[in-house]
Design a protein that fits this description.
The complex is a heterotrimer of chains A (about 425), B (about 260) and C (about 240). By secondary structure, chain A is mainly beta. Chain A is about 10% helix and about 35% strand. Chain A has two domains: about 220 residues, Single-stranded right-handed beta-helix, Pectin lyase-like (Pectate Lyase C-like, 3 Solenoid); about 150 residues, no CATH class. In chain A, helix 2 links the parallel strand 1 and strand 2. Chain B has one domain. The chains are: A mainly beta (about 425), B mainly alpha (about 260), C alpha/beta (about 240). Chains in contact: A-B, B-C.
Chain lengths: ~425, ~260, ~240
């Protein structure tokens, strides 16, 4: 792996070097590849092409093993020609600048437990564009490492391969050590992680749909200064996990239907100085799980019909929770700590039954979002059977009157009387 | 049977209490919906009230009715009428009356204000609960001759299923929290009709998100319609079993 | 024809009927007498199937009544205290009973008319006096012209006029060959109405004989006195 990476990076660097100094011919050619054309194989076309040339691929099925692209070319499929990896090969390996791959249907790559075999792999690629392709049953769909200024847009990635003992499924869009990548309007389904970032910075993930992936819909670590805007994450095995990162912005995303004992719609672990705004969390077992996270701004979000809206561990501090709607969650907040170092204010809680005598739109008595029964259920999940029973009502009422177990100062002093209108 | 039920019904429907009950439910339902802008939340609040009030009224009303209609039963028994027929006529009349009151008080307003599946399940579970507690009322009534004692037993049933049993269940869950308790808890729930009705409603209303947390068993059980079918059929057993018990008692009872 | 064989009944610790055997034959009328708590009402209720004997058998017209109900078509019953659903009107009660019996033949409305119930049809049962209720009970008992009449304290609570109407009716029906079982504490009534006596004590039949015979044996003219005399003799005798 390391050897391979080293060599390929060496080659790639060479290519970039060449590309920079090679005079691109003013009259770029366009090579047609098709069963009825002179050039019948994609491999031959790539070999023939000079930097700057385009290859037009006509409809058909191409089985050509591993295609290595080391020059700045554009490959465009007409009516989704099928490039078949025959269950053995990585399809495209791109190690050049300015390569575009568009409109292809990439199916059935090889699978391995050692190599990350991908339908399109970018190694030290600069300005790689992957547009409007379909990926079916790829091990890894798109796999970029050490690349920058890439665009991944309008692709559809689906995998129907389940995890088995021998071979796992791979990630849909996998980025390692990349910079300034834009991932937009893709749909990823049935992979291990829908989108996987490790050491990816200054990138944007916009308007993607990541659903029913086996592990995380989005998974990122050590990926600072990224924006995640208007994506939809739904029905992923364990939701979305973000870790060891600072300065990210998550705006307008929808986190839906992550259900399971170890499933979190959004898991935050060691995240700092980041913002989660205008997101919608609905129908999840746990909407946000926070651990070791600091100085987060979580505001204007909608928490609806989740088991727990938020689980805030004691290791979190300096976070602001403001102007969120908490509606019909089984439990609003749970915590393992006794003191709260976070600010909770001006949220709407549908469980709030206080009054607003001065008519400023905010309740006059604080709201305590942690319920004793919620803590019981956390320790003894089967006690969930008693939810909304009279007994539980009595327990929670008693705890409200004389708080003995729940943290008394974890409260919203300024609870909104009406839900914020989001539409 | 129909003829006799008709006459028993005529008698029971003159009871003003039933009308009060329907009105009370209607006032509660309407006020909850007008107080809360979110109809889903109103349905949940309504559920809490229904789970307490419906069993209480059903069991107390039926028990009192049964003891008050001793004369009527006596009169019927001196006529050439099968005891079984008398028994079932009484049961049908009592549960029919309470069901109609419940449907008028809760069903009609809820279907006008919030016609969705959650409401349907709420109404459905309330009906089942009505029949269960009418059944239990019969069991309480036939096991003693003394009206005060009968009402006492009925109240005990209500209190037991409404509160005590759940406390007992929580205690068991707590004591054995180190063991896999999912199936045991499920079995325990089956022994309490109020819990069953609550679960039928909650499965449609708001618990499904939480079910994931409790592991694969609950998820597969309650995530599918299996949970609803199971709970509803257990409720039917809760109607049938006390009824069989009271029928047997009634058949060998000296009036 | 009613045949009672070795009937026992106990309520808890209390033995109410101890091995009672008796037979009531067609065309006869029987006075069932005895002190309070001697088991008269229990015996009657046993025949009606309201009380289920622990032991023994009861036959009505040759049919064992255990678990049966259709035989009650042959019985008219007037309870000691007629209790009816409070909210019903007299007219409705009568209609209901007619409807329940679903009878094809004409009903015997004689008592309804003679006891003046028609004028009270619109009265609710709970507004009625005990006597009026008794009238209703009596009317119902005779309504279907049954072969067997069981009357538990029929004249108690009735005004003298109504009592006479009822007694006249009983005598009339008796002459038509009905069996009458009458319990009463009014010995003079029984003297008038019945021809046989069954004397119960502590749940067992003490005497069963014809009334003329008992009068002769006691040497008294009136039934009440005859019974009192027999009881007195009883006390003098050493108990077995």
């Amino acid at each position: 792996m390391t050897d391979f990476n080293f060599t390929s990076r060496f080659i790639a660097n060479g290519v970039i070097f060449c590309a920079l100094f090679y005079p691109i011919s003013a009259s770029a050619r366009s090579i047609r590849v098709g069963l009825e054309e002179k050039v019948r194989s994609l491999r031959a076309a790539i070999e023939m092409a000079d930097p700057g040339d385009s290859i037009l691929v006509e409809p058909g099925t191409y089985k050509e093993g591993n295609l290595i692209v080391q020059k700045m070319i554009t490959i465009i499929g007409e009516h989704l020609p099928v490039i078949d990896g025959e269950g053995k090969y990585e399809i495209f390996t791109v190690a050049a600048s300015g390569v575009t791959i568009q409109g292809l249907k990439l199916v059935n790559t090889g699978r391995a437990s050692i190599h990350d075999i991908a339908a399109i792999k970018g190694l030290d690629a600069v300005g790689l564009s992957i547009l409007d392709n379909q990926f079916v049953d790829a091990f890894f769909g798109i796999h970029l490492s050490n690349s920058s200024d890439c665009i991944i847009r309008g692709n559809t990635l689906t995998s129907t391969v389940k995890d088995t003992a021998g071979v796992q499924s791979g990630n849909g869009i996998h980025l390692w050590k990349c910079n300034r990548v834009t991932i937009s309007k893709n749909t990823i389904e049935g992979h291990r992680d829908g989108i996987y970032f490790e050491f990816v910075t200054k990138s944007r993930v916009v308007e993607n749909i990541s659903r029913r992936n086996l592990r995380y819909g989005l998974h990122f670590m050590f990926s600072h200064d990224d924006d995640y805007l208007y994506n939809i994450f739904t029905g992923n095995g364990s939701g979305v996990a973000v870790m060891y990162t600072r300065n990210v912005k998550m705006t307008g995303n929808r986190f839906l239907d992550s259900k399971g004992a170890a499933s979190y719609a959004l898991l935050l672990k060691d995240i700092g100085d980041s913002r989660i705004e205008q997101c919608r969390f609905e129908g999840n077992t746990v909407a946000i799980y926070m651990e070791g996270s600091s100085r987060m701004i979580i505001q204007d979000n909608e928490f609806r019909e989740n088991g727990w809206a938020m689980k805030v561990q004691a290791s979190c501090d300096g976070n602001l929770l403001k102007r969120n709607n908490f509606v019909r969650n089984t439990f609003d907040i749970s915590t393992n700590g006794s003191i709260s170092l976070n600010t909770i204010t001006s949220n709407y809680w549908d469980k709030y039954d206080g009054y607003d005598l001065n008519r400023d739109g905010h309740g006059d008595v604080p709201f305590h979002p942690v319920s004793l029964y919620g803590m019981i259920v956390e320790k003894m999940p089967t006690a969930v059977m008693l939810w909304r029973s009279f007994l539980v009502f009595l327990i929670d009422r008693a705890e409200k009157v004389v708080p003995a177990v729940t943290p008394a100062n974890l409260k919203d002093d300024f609870p909104a009387m009406k839900a914020y209108d989001r539409d | 049977m129909i003829r006799i039920t008709k006459h028993v019904l005529y008698d029971i429907l003159r009871n003003r209490f039933v009308i009060l009950y329907a009105l009370f439910l209607m006032v509660i339902t309407l006020s909850l919906f007008s107080l809360d802008s979110d109809p889903g939340k109103a349905v949940l609040s309504l559920m809490n009230i229904i789970l307490m009030v419906v069993p209480l009224v059903s069991i107390i009303f039926t028990t009192i009715y049964f003891f008050n209609s001793y004369e009527f039963i006596e009169l019927l028994l001196s006529q050439p009428i099968d005891r079984k027929v008398i028994f079932f006529s009484e049961y049908i009349a009592a549960s029919f009356t309470l069901s109609v009151a419940y449907l008028l008080g809760v069903g009609v307003p809820i279907f006008m204000l919030s016609p969705d599946w959650g409401s349907l399940y709420l109404v459905f579970a309330g009906l089942l609960l009505t029949w269960v507690f009418v059944s239990l009322a019969f069991a309480a009534s036939v096991s003693t001759r003394d009206k005060a004692r009968g009402i006492g037993i009925a109240l005990l049933f209500w209190f037991y299923f409404g509160l005590i049993y759940d406390g007992f269940m929580l205690y068991i869950i707590y004591s054995f929290s180190d063991y896999p308790m999912e199936k045991v808890t499920l079995a325990l729930v089956s022994f309490n009709p109020v819990d069953l009705a609550r679960i039928v409603i909650l499965l449609k209303l708001d618990i499904s998100a939480l079910m994931g947390y409790t592991g694969a068993f609950y998820k597969s059980f309650f995530g599918t319609s299996l949970g609803t079918v199971f709970s509803a059929s257990m409720l039917v057993l809760w109607i049938v079993l006390p009824l069989i018990y009271s029928l047997r008692k009634f058949l060998s009872k000296d009036i | 024809m009613i045949e009672i064989r070795d009937v026992c009944k106990r309520f808890g610790n209390l033995e109410v009927l101890r091995m009672i055997s008796a037979s009531f034959t067609d065309g006869n009328s029987y006075a069932i007498v005895g002190p309070n708590g001697s088991g008269k009402t229990t015996l009657i209720k046993s025949i009606l199937g309201m009380v289920l004997p622990d032991k023994g058998s009861i036959e009505v017209s040759g049919q064992v009544i255990k678990g049966q109900w259709a035989y009650r078509e042959q019985i008219g019953y007037m309870p000691q205290i007629g209790r009816y659903p409070d909210n019903m009107r007299i007219g409705h009660v009568l209609d209901m009973i007619r409807d329940l019996r679903h009878t094809r033949s004409e009903t015997d409305e004689e008592l309804v008319a003679d006891l003046g119930l028609k004028a009270l049809f619109d009265k609710r049962m709970h507004t009625l006096s005990g006597g009026t209720r008794q009238k209703v009970s009596a009317a119902i008992a005779f309504l279907f012209d049954p072969k067997i009449m069981i009357l538990d304290e029929p004249t108690a609570g009735l005004d003298p006029l109504a009592a006479e109407v009822l007694k006249a009716k009983i005598l009339k029906e008796k002459s038509r060959g009905k069996i009458f079982l009458i319990t009463s504490h009014m010995m003079s009534d029984l003297d008038e109405l019945t021809s046989e006596i069954v004397y119960l004590q502590e749940g067992a039949v003490r005497y069963a004989a014809s009334i003329p015979a008992i009068k002769v044996e006691a040497g008294r003219e009136k039934l009440g006195q005859a019974i009192a005399e027999m009881m007195r003799r009883d006390f003098k005798r050493p108990s077995p």
